[in-house]
Write a structure and sequence with these properties.
By secondary structure, this protein is mostly helical. It is built from 7 helices and no strands. The model has no long low-confidence stretch (mean pLDDT 79).
């Protein structure tokens, strides 16, 4: 898994930047459209697009690195989940806040669980595998929190999602930089 992530460390940084951009786009959409039904539509559109693009990048990394590790399936599964949930969200723009909550919660928890599996498969001598485990715990916790609060209104839901997107984006950025640092260290050692 380390070989795959170290070769495509920059994809982690792009995915992190996209998550942060997603987190920033939500408040912009909310402040532009203050009507709850429009806010929900913007949230669904932005989330669906983000999940789809994140899924495509994960699948691209997985298929490009399938000869490097037996664990490439983890990223492939993450990508498939992202694309599936993204398409589901985009196709059902008329979804309710509860429906969107379920999409996001399931996606975050499933991707978080897969990140925990990936973190466990990284070599433990790597100084920074914590970032992947932290992202996994964050995703599972966020997904669980979202499921426990059904019926939240779109605005309250949006702010929770903003926080998760930005924090998970920072974790991916740190992880990408850490993997890059470890790769440079391994190449010079």
């Amino acid at each position: 898994m380390f070989m795959l992530l170290s070769r495509y460390w920059w994809v982690l940084i792009v995915r992190g930047a996209l998550a942060i951009l997603f987190g920033v786009a939500i408040p912009l959409g909310i402040t532009t459209f203050v009507k709850p039904d429009v806010t929900l539509a913007v949230l669904i559109l932005v989330f669906g697009t983000y999940a789809f693009v994140d899924g495509v990048s994960a699948i691209g990394t997985a298929t490009s690195g399938r000869t490097m590790t037996q664990d490439w399936w983890i990223l492939l599964l993450q990508g498939g989940l992202g694309i599936g949930i993204g398409v589901l969200a985009l196709v059902s723009l008329a979804a309710t806040a509860e429906g969107l909550l379920v999409y996001i919660a399931l996606w975050a928890a499933a991707v978080g669980a897969l990140q925990l599996v990936a973190a466990d498969r990284l070599p433990h001598e790597l100084t920074g595998e914590w970032w992947l485990a932290a992202g996994g715990v964050l995703g599972v916790a966020f997904g669980t929190l979202m499921i426990w609060h059904p019926g939240a209104d779109a605005l309250a839901l949006a702010w929770v999602i903003v926080g998760y997107a930005i924090v998970s984006g920072v974790v991916l950025l740190v992880g990408g930089l850490d993997i890059h640092r470890a790769r440079k260290h391994a190449l010079t050692a």
